[in-house]
Amino acid sequence: MLSSKKILLASSLLVLASCSDDNMDEWNTVEVLDGSEKLFLPDSIAESDTLYAWFMKELAPESSSSSSKSSSSSGDDSSSSGNSSGSEELSSSGEMSSSGKSDVASSSSVRSSAEMAPDSVYASEEYADASKARLLPPAGFYSDLTIPVPVPQYGGTIRCTFDGSMPTASTVEFKTPYKVTKNTVARCAEFIGDSIARTSSHTFFINETVSMPVVSISVDPYSMFDSRDGYYSQGVSYCSEPCYEANYWRDIELPVHVEYFENGSSSAKRSWQIDAGLSIIGQWSRYRAKKSVAIKMKNEYQDGRLKYSLFKTRPDDNKFKAFNLRNNGNRFVGDYIEDPVLSSLLEGSGVDYQRSRQVVVFYNGAYYGIHDLRERLNEHYVETNYGIDSKEVNMVKHIKTEVTASGGTTDSYVAMLDFIHAHDFSVDTAAYTKLSTMMDVGNYADYMAAEIYYHNGDWPDNNVRAWNTADQPFKFLVFDLDHGFGWDWAVRGFDYMDHNMFSWIKRGGTNLCYGEHCFAEIYIKLSQNPDFRRLFVNHSAVMLDYYLSYDKLAAAVDNMTATIPGTEMDRDMQRFPRNEHSFDKTGSTLKSYAQTRTSTVRNEYRSEFALGSDISVSISVTGKGKVLLDGMTLPSSSYTGKFFADNDMLLMAVPTDGSVFEAWEDGSKANPRLVTPTSVSKFIAKFK
């Protein structure tokens, strides 16, 4: 007979239950009072392999240890849509194996297993009630696991699959405890006739060690990986790359279930899970064995938003509509971090980029290596980062003369291009003022400085992204830097080491697109305006000296490399072989290229704009306020940087916190103020 203490525990457990199984992601720690004792329910799998095992252990009679038996999966728990004993399964190489065996490598034991309860407990009323709370044990990392038979909550039939596919009304009923012997996705549903009353999709990792965040994707294996019809496969008898006939070029979206474990195999519980859609993305990188995919949250799958802080650089951004899992694009064969490192240098500069983090991806329990989890560039990017309703955003893509929109329309962007083409900015100052209401000129200058520094050969006739709203002029976003920083893969007409970027821009990139409706024409026309030239040179000086400095790049390389342990790199390289002699695991090639990059770029500016030597200029304040340099907010209120002689500066003192601008330290009260700096210049704004 069960003690009152254990019955109390059972009833307390039921308080946590929810009718919608996967809406309650994991159990919380709850204090339970029992007379003078305080008992605690464990938080997910932090203290035991599974809440079920813990629950049954607590309910079992004192003699259970001598009479208990370990449950196994010897019974018929297979399904018509895929199972572990008869149908094809996904191997660690991504191929379908007729043996049903997985090649996923096992590592050392993660957690000790707890024996299952005796049959008397399975038959108890307390166990039946508690089992109704969830269809499955908590998702996570185990050394050993047997899934008990769930009890229907609505009097229906429980059906489960173990290959990633969703159970159907014809799936065999789950009647016998299922022994999990390898990484497995269990997807269960309670059916009332042909209708589903509740569902649950959990990934169980067995003896798996991962020291990076883990993204686990559950997907129908035949739709995704079948050698003939699978989205991930070529699907044709022969086709040379780029194979536009291949399945992975199809414009389709597969329903998937995604789970996230923030701390890899050390995760005490799953951080989040969501139903979403998956589609393959990228261009030339699609033919790689590891593919890039987009994960899109839509109302047709769930509530349409993932509410979680994915990136540490902006912890308050915690509502996402989509994200990408990138195979590192064209740099797949070269390194893990070039694109995310270079773009991360823009943090704080005001130039938009895709924030990212390195993760390990599993499909249906099979290892698929290191991916770059990053923001997806569409109108929802603006909603996440700026709090602007996505319905108000125009997000455009500009390739050669073609402009398309992934959100909103292209009308305002095309109108801006038409305006630029129609005016001579060298003499028409009113036109330049008007353009400043259509395009954030300061942001454009900072964006251009970054692309020039990156030495991006796959630009400016490609990979241009921008967004605006009715109240916000166009801002540009850095996108796809794979062909930057000395990458020696062919870009027609581009010297990957030494090409002068101003010459590259004015020739219109590899496609010679420099005229009407070409992105390059923006620079060609604006650079004729003296106010823009002054602004552009000063903004670029700050970008090069601060945001794009060698020290910042080296620190970014070291910080990002540190998030990918050597053991994880080795495993990824073994799963997806590349030439280890040319593959850079440490980021040393990026640091080497950066050693001389700043001085090279500064000399290109000197030649382009007839500038003088480098000079050191200090700009600071006393009191509460700041100084804008040609509209640019400086990195600090007391900034000393390297600028160019023979280029004027437009300084504006801006009071803050109720202060008032008094004067410049040299007595001038002009505000804004145009000055000509020298190597000993110090400009101090005084506020009172």
Could you explain the architecture of this structure?
The protein is of the alpha+beta class and 688 residues long. The chain folds into three domains: 1-209, no CATH class; 386-606, Phosphatidylinositol 3-kinase Catalytic Subunit, Chain A, Domain 5, CATH 1.10.1070; 612-687, no CATH class. It is 24% helix and 23% strand. It is elongated, with a radius of gyration of 30 Å.
| Radius of gyration, whole Å | 30 Å
CATH architecture of the largest domain: Orthogonal Bundle
Largest sheet properties: 7 strands, mixed, barrel
Got a strand count?
29
Low-confidence stretches: 1-20, 23-122
**What is the topology, as strand order, of the major beta sheet?**
11-12-13-14-15-17-16
Instruction: Tell me the name of the CATH class of the largest domain.
Output: Mainly Alpha
Short account of what is shown:
With 688 residues, the chain is an alpha+beta fold. Helices cover 24% and strands 23% of the residues.
Highlighted features:
four-stranded mixed sheet; 17 helices; 688 residues; seven-stranded mixed barrel; alpha+beta; disordered N terminus; Phosphatidylinositol 3-kinase Catalytic Subunit, Chain A, Domain 5; 29 strands
